[in-house]
Design a protein that fits this description.
Strand content: 25-35%
Number of strands: 14
Radius of gyration: 24 Å
Distance between the termini: 45 Å
Length: 373
């Protein structure tokens, strides 16, 4: 039944393609699911993942395992490289189904402006396509089999979407990237991914100052960045207690409110974070020995940890003159006169910005399996 539903879904998609590709027959098109763009030795390489409609077999057999194929082309720019891919496939590339664009690290470090120009001007670009950066080459990400997923590109986009909600990855679309890029004071940020032996994993968040890559936030700073950005829905933290040892805590709900002001001549981002917690694991003792005083102690430990990782993320951004946290946008909303006075020299102003953070955590649940040794 599951395979039948997959087959039916694919048939419906193909029917949709027939209706939206003008006079092109499906057999004359290569349906793009993912694209990687690399820049090495002054040459652009584009790797596209397309549906392999000629896969052998029929019915459920044809829809088992990976149903895509990857093709690469080189050129002096992105458009030339795409044209060479088209020639290799002898079919026109159809980008209406594309899910993700991956920039290689060489591209992100040296060629970002041309990337954004392509997204702004190309008719192939779509507003809801996910954008990320490979820790190395983009081709490695596109070539990942994702544990033999039906469509690997879809698996990677799901990783980014789930990752943002759980605090370990950013989920950025073309539309969001362009809005950040075109804003007067904001800077872009993008998730960084790496290709492991069998699948793709997350390697942090890249933050930029204009077109310059400033740094890649590590796991903790990524979590802090996402909390400050009010992106996290749930998450997990470890804290250490002298009496209870290592404690695992689930964030089951979190909300961040921010506003910016000018105080003593400096811009201050005020952040108020409220999180509901569930006690998940305790190294020392049993769950029935945990008292209300223990819970208050752990709440304080979590508050301090959230404050520390948010502060670390904040100052990595502002020290690199990167407004990926949209501090200028906050100032424009809450104090437009100050924004108008400071925005023309925003880089200098931003480097002296400060964070005022208040964190309030409360336990709402206790996992009955929260046992120690």
């Amino acid at each position: 039944m599951k395979n039948f539903k997959i087959l039916l879904s694919v048939m419906l998609i193909l029917l949709l393609f027939t209706g939206c590709t003008e006079r092109n027959d499906l057999s004359d098109l290569s349906i793009v699911e993912g694209m990687g763009i690399d820049y090495n030795d002054d040459e652009v390489t584009v790797t596209v993942q397309t549906l392999n409609l000629a896969k052998e077999g029929s019915g459920a057999e044809a829809l088992s395992g990976n149903v895509t194929m990857n093709t690469s082309g080189k050129g002096s720019n992105i458009s030339d490289a795409i044209e060479n891919v088209t020639e290799s496939l002898s079919k026109k590339l159809f980008f209406g189904q594309n899910r993700i664009i991956v920039f290689g690290m060489g591209m992100a470090e040296n060629y970002l402006e041309k990337n954004v120009d392509y997204l702004l001007r190309s008719s192939d670009s779509r507003s809801d396509v996910k954008i990320c950066i490979s820790e190395k080459d983009a081709a490695e990400i596109i070539d990942s089999h994702e544990n033999d997923a039906l469509v690997p590109a879809e698996s990677i986009t799901s990783l980014l979407n789930i990752g943002e909600k759980n605090g370990f990855a950013a989920d950025v679309t073309t539309n969001e990237l362009l809005n950040l890029y075109l804003d007067k004071t904001s800077d872009i940020f993008l998730p960084v991914v790496r290709a492991d032996e069998k699948c793709v994993s997350v390697a942090g968040i890249a933050i930029f100052n204009d077109e310059k890559l400033v740094t890649v936030l590590d796991e903790n700073s990524t979590f802090g960045f996402l909390i400050l950005s009010n992106k996290i829905k749930t998450g997990f933290l470890n804290v250490l207690s002298d009496e209870l040892g290592e404690i695992g805590v689930d964030i089951i709900k979190s909300k961040t409110k921010t506003y910016a002001s000018v105080e003593n001549g400096k811009v201050v981002l005020h952040a108020e974070i409220k999180s509901n917690l569930m006690l998940d694991a305790v190294e020392k003792g049993l769950i029935n020995t945990i008292t209300s005083n223990h819970l208050k102690e752990v709440e304080k430990l979590v508050e301090n940890k959230i404050s520390d990782i948010c502060s670390n993320a904040f100052y990595q951004c502002v020290n690199g003159k990167s407004d990926s946290l949209r501090i200028g946008e906050n100032l424009a909303m809450y104090s437009p006169k100050d924004y108008d006075a400071l925005s023309d020299d925003w880089g200098s102003v931003l480097s002296e910005a400060q964070l005022d953070i208040k964190v309030n955590c409360k336990f709402k649940k206790i996992n009955e399996n929260s046992k120690g040794d």
